[in-house]
TrEMBL record:
Residues 260-377, 692-803 form the ABC3 transporter permease C-terminal domain. The keyword Membrane applies. It comes from Amycolatopsis eburnea. Belongs to the ABC-4 integral membrane protein family. This is ABC transporter permease. Pfam families: FtsX (PF02687).
Length: 815
């Protein structure tokens, strides 16, 4: 039967082309997402600043968090830990360099510091000149003395120039003593200071970001470093030079897993629907084969063989083009600062294998279902039943639907009863997929039911053409469901994900605005010198001012069962001093309790609870003294001051006075709107990622809709011909087809809206207390318009082509 399958492919190019398109685009997206995941796992970053050092030692950026309370475990039991990535740069004490110099075989040890610096309007990173050998840079001129700098050749300066340089919150005039030339293209411009100046301006005197080791054995170096740091060689050195890639790699893994898994699930239904529709359109041919002696097993083998041939061709093309799409997606993520631009896209053979396996598994499963249905007719009844649609409700469909509906209901209950704040999206998001897949499993029956419910309004508006369209939709429910399902998936996924995102953004912005008491902000790209706070507070019209520091902390003791590897958001303010901490009521602590914390750079500290406050659900944070939190951030200083105006002082007056008070300092002054806009912009990055992924899934479902509708309509040429011979005009046939398209779009929109509501309503009840999402109505209207236009165009264009020529000629062509 495989030989017959190959010969059949040549004669039924249309149906198999539709299957090819469905499998190809599904495998293409899964393959591209696999490449993103592999890139996140590898997190390969080309070495730049540290390229000349064969061994690089850096701080330990991983913190082990126990999954269970150690106090409740048997001492003999093994403790399970979760690895959390520390958000701030973990530095090494300078004494580590002294110990490494004593390692046998080591010829040189060079410590490196890196800190943001502003040279006029240009941004750069400052370093000590003695670390230039780690690249290595070549020098034109001489090394800098205190008060001098060597600048990157790309900055366009000359030896002898004097320029203002702002670093670590202070600005100074430095003379250019030399020009440094890098051996390769560098992401960041560099400015080199004398070692004493660099040590002071780094904000962390006596500590190194990384240490380059020349010579010696890696194992010997690692034994000296121990648990105090990590030892890297080769490509792994890039992760120490750019520590932000560690967290970005984890985020990219999650992003790729979610989008790839979603695409794979959508592909299963799309491919199954396409293959089922293609097989159904061949019922007369398959029935004839049964009548002349073909066994059910032979028919199943033939359908499987056809599907595998098409699937293998589609998968081969998708695997070849997967890296191209993956690279494009990666470039978009990098361009929008979702991942660092130094992270490198890598796609090997594994993502291609997974994409191929998942796609072929979907093809085999779909062909098994299609072949099984085609082979169940008894030979004596085959020809009589060929033109009539078989029953669509099978035990597999019913069980799938029940499981999906049960899962969606369970997630909705968990969302409302357990989740708080934006984290509710983690259960609300998957719920929409379960509702959608449940409806997709029984879509023929649901399509027929909704078409029946729409009978009176459709007939009242459209007359006889509408009655015929309704009859066609109800009788051909399986065919119509093949088009309804992908549109329903597109509407449901798009509506749910977009409104979940807009609602989450609105709630986040609202929470930030409600908590914000400041009327102005003073900030500095390299941090704010502590003296600025005193000058600001002394400014006329200022009621209060506070440093504003953000970071992440981890609670070690007492054990916090609600803490995950993302830790607790932490806020540093000047109103608190010493080792005080303000905690939310949800933490379950009392005033006077002691908490053992790990700060953002892993430093341990014990703090005493001085206040327990009620905070908005989902936005809880620990409030610490800015003087305690800031030194343990990568910057080492507070990046902002929040200022509140005295009574009777307007925003414009306040900002003008602040600019006068901070004149000569490397700072900027903004009003309240500046703070709100900056916060909203941070949310937009996450929203953009969501929109990109939703757009990718929608694009696939759009292709599938067009694919299915064109295939289904093109096969109706004989039906259209018979209608014209019975008295219909070509215009009436086209109007009937248009009404069918509108009916299919309406059914799909109603079902898609219902699936989206199953996720949106529980989420909105949790985060905003309303059943309706926050966001522009235009988004929903655009989704509806796309669905309607898509269905109409995909039906009317092939219907127009199918009704060309004489009606009698159309009736002589087999289905």
């Amino acid at each position: 039967m495989f030989g017959l399958a190959l010969r059949t492919l040549r004669l039924r190019k249309g149906g198999f082309l539709a299957t090819f398109v469905a499998v190809f685009f599904g495998a293409l997206i899964v393959s591209a997402c696999g490449g993103l995941m592999e890139s996140g796992i590898r997190s390969e970053t080309p070495v730049q600043r540290l390229a000349a050092a064969p061994i690089v030692v850096g701080g330990q950026q991983t913190l082990k968090l126990p999954e269970d309370d150690p106090a409740t475990l048997d001492p003999e039991d093994k403790h399970k830990f979760d690895n959390a990535t520390l958000p701030e740069r973990v530095r090494l004490d300078a004494s580590m360099a002294v110990r490494l110099r004593a390692v046998p075989g080591v010829t040189d040890v060079v410590g490196e510091v890196s800190f943001p610096a502003q040279i006029g309007s240009a941004s750069a990173f400052g370093h000590a000149w003695d670390s230039a050998v780690l690249t290595p840079y070549t020098l034109a001129g001489r090394a800098p003395n205190p008060g001098e700098v060597v600048v990157d050749a790309g900055l366009g300066l000359a030896v002898g120039d004097t320029l203002p340089v702002a670093a670590h919150g202070v600005a100074g005039q430095y003379r250019v003593s030399g020009i440094a030339h890098a051996p390769q293209a560098m992401r960041d411009s560099a400015v080199f200071f004398a070692p004493s100046d660099a040590d002071r301006l780094s904000g962390h005197p006596g500590r190194f970001d990384t240490i380059g080791v020349f010579g010696g054995d890696v194992a010997a170096v690692a034994s000296v470093v121990g648990d105090a740091g990590v030892v890297t060689t080769g490509a792994d050195r890039g992760a120490l030079e750019f520590p932000e890639v560690n967290k970005s790699g984890e985020d990219l893994i999650v992003l790729a897993a979610v989008s790839g898994g979603l695409s794979a699930m959508v592909m299963v239904f799309v491919v199954a629907g396409t293959l089922t529709l293609s097989t159904q359109q061949r019922q007369r041919e398959l029935a004839l084969l049964r009548a002349i002696g073909a066994t059910p097993r032979q028919l199943r083998r033939m359908v499987l063989g056809e599907a595998l041939v098409v699937g293998l061709l589609a998968v081969a093309a998708a695997v070849a083009l997967g890296p191209v799409l993956g690279q494009w997606l990666f470039d978009q993520l990098a361009a929008n600062h979702v991942v660092p631009d130094v992270l490198r896209f890598e796609q090997g053979w594994l993502p291609a294998t997974v994409a191929a396996g998942a796609s072929l598994l979907a093809v085999v499963a779909a062909s098994f279902v299609a072949g099984r249905r085609a082979s169940k007719v008894r030979p004596t009844e085959a020809l009589a039943e060929a033109a009539v649609e078989r029953r669509w409700l099978t035990p597999i469909r019913l069980v799938t639907a029940l499981l999906c509906f049960a899962g969606g209901t369970a997630l909705a209950i968990v969302t409302v009863a357990v989740m708080t704040g934006p984290v509710a999206a983690s259960t609300a998001g998957p719920a929409v997929m379960l509702w959608a897949f449940g409806l997709a499993a029984i879509s023929p029956g649901v399509t027929k039911l909704v078409a029946t419910l729409l009978r009176w309004p459709v007939q009242a508006i459209t007359g006889v053409n509408g009655r015929i369209a309704l009859l066609n939709t109800r009788v051909g429910a399986v065919r119509a469901a093949g088009a309804v399902t992908p549109i329903m998936l597109a509407v449901g996924i798009a509506t749910a994900n977009i409104y979940l995102q807009t609602t989450q953004e609105a709630v986040s912005n609202q929470a930030y605005t409600e908590d914000l008491r400041a009327d102005a902000v003073v900030g500095g790209p390299s941090g704010l010198d502590p003296s600025v706070l005193g000058r600001v507070r002394a400014t006329p019209g200022v009621a209060s001012a506070s440093e504003y520091v953000t970071s992440t902390v981890f609670i070690e003791q007492p054990f916090d069962s609600n803490q995950d590897k993302d830790g607790w958001p932490a806020l540093g303010v000047s109103e608190l001093t010493g080792n005080a901490v303000e905690v939310p009521t949800t933490l379950g602590r009392q005033v006077g309790d002691t908490l053992s914390l790990r700060l953002g750079d892993g430093a341990p500290v014990d703090v005493r609870v001085t206040a327990v406050v009620s905070q908005r659900a989902g936005f809880e944070k620990l409030v610490l003294p800015a003087g305690l939190l800031a030194p343990h951030t990568t910057l080492g200083l507070a990046p902002q001051l929040l200022v509140r105006a005295a009574d009777g002082v307007d925003s414009a007056t306040l900002t003008a006075r602040l600019r006068e008070a901070t004149a000569g300092s490397p700072v900027f002054v903004g009003d309240r709107d500046t703070l709100i806009a900056a916060h909203a912009k941070g949310n937009e990055i996450g929203a953009w990622v969501n929109y990109l992924l939703v757009g990718m899934i929608i694009a696939y479902t759009v292709i599938s809709v067009v694919n299915t509708l064109v295939m289904a309509t093109a096969k109706r040429r004989r039906e259209f011909g018979l209608q014209r011979l019975s008295g219909f005009t070509r215009g009436q046939v086209l109007r009937m087809a248009g009404i069918e398209g509108g009916l299919i779009a309406t059914i799909a929109v109603l079902l898609g809206t219902a699936t989206a509501a199953g996720a949106i309503v529980p989420f909105c009840l949790v985060v905003s207390g309303s059943v309706l999402p926050t966001g522009p109505l235009a988004v929903y209207l655009v989704v509806l318009a796309i669905a309607v236009v898509l269905a109409l165009v995909a039906i009317l264009v092939p219907a127009w082509a199918a009704t060309r020529g004489r009606a009698v000629d159309a009736t002589s062509i087999g289905e």
